[in-house]
Write a structure and sequence with these properties.
Blueprint lengths: L2 E10 L3 H9 L1 H4 L6 E5 L2 E6 L2 E11 L3 E6 L8 E7 L6 E10 L3 H18 L4
Antiparallel strand pairs: 1-7, 2-3, 3-4, 4-5, 5-6, 6-7
């Protein structure tokens, strides 16, 4: 199956510093992204329903970007959270980049929309 890159943009009320914590600290990640997480240096092991998935932290710029590469992922694929501020409205923009099978694009989009709804609740923006 062909793999495709998806990019989703969300506006949030939380500051970049707060959002950054929700992508990098265990106590925040379990509030919106996974059931459990174990971080050993640059290796993040996320658990969903008891099943682990390991990712490596490729890029980490405080309050700006966090990029992971999945251990079991395809070559060149990654999961990225990029944070910026809209110069017009002053709102925080979250750009999520992910990859999925071409026929799963809508499901993946719905999954991220659901996850970001939780993120908004947890960061006080929603």
């Amino acid at each position: 199956m062909e793999r495709v890159k998806i990019e989703l943009e969300f506006l949030l009320r939380a500051s970049p510093a707060i959002l950054y914590q929700f992508f990098t600290t265990p106590s925040c990640l379990i509030r919106w992204f996974c059931d459990e997480v174990d971080i050993q240096g640059e290796t993040f092991t996320f658990f969903w329903n008891g099943s682990p998935e390991t990712a490596y932290l490729l890029e980490d710029i405080e309050d700006e970007v966090v990029r992971f590469e999945w251990e079991e992922g395809e070559e060149g694929e990654f999961l990225e959270f990029r944070i910026s501020i809209s110069p017009v409205t002053g709102e925080t923009i979250l750009l999520i980049t992910d990859f999925c099978d071409a026929d799963e694009r809508d499901d993946q989009r719905q999954l991220w929309e659901s996850q970001v709804r939780e993120l908004r609740k947890e960061t006080g923006g929603g």
